[in-house]
Amino acid sequence: MEYRAYVNFIYAAYMKMRVIMVRSRQETMEENRAKLISAGRKAFAEKGYAAASMDELTADVGLTRGALYHNFGDKRGLLAAVVTQIDGEMAARAKKIGTGAAAGDHWQAMLAEGAAYIEMALDPEVQRIVLLDGPSVLGDPSKWPSQNSCLLATKRSVEDLLDKGVLKPVDPEAAARLLSGAALNAALWVAASDDPKAVLPKAIDAFRAMATGLLADR
Fold first, then answer.
1. Which candidate, 31, 84, 181, 201, has a CA 20 to 30 Å from the CA of 207?
2. Which pLDDT tens digit goes with each residue over 69-94?
């Protein structure tokens, strides 16, 4: 083998190995991140944010506090990641319920979606992590990235309903913010109440009544 060909062969082998190592490291980091989120989710649901021990949490998945700090910065950062995951699941579940409950009727689907989101306040995991500890530790939920995603989805639905003449001619962002905010605050109210099951139907009825005010006169 000529010298140049030999050098090219060695270089190609080196680059291939480097790609494999980088990919392996990236996959390990992603696996560790997923393990920590899963462990955090379990600990926060069972013990609450304040009582959850980061040493126990990381040890349960065979990692160290260093891995937690590297991936999330601190305990608060881990909670934010857990909240984002659960809130995203809530939105997807509510969307599925809304679509299934009112196939073809986008307005009724939106109402069903909002009601489903509020009803999830009865879920112990959602209640404790997203609706109680989340706002206490992370601040205003309306500013969470996951809530911004929900807002954008609601805005698109509102724009579609406006195009169809279903709603009064209102600003789509304003309507979307009011609808999203109403569902979120209703869920927060249910979660924080002394009797969530008793409060739930009141919250859903009020949400539906308020939202219906956006309907165009027919």
1. 84
2. 888 889 999 999 999 999 889 888 98
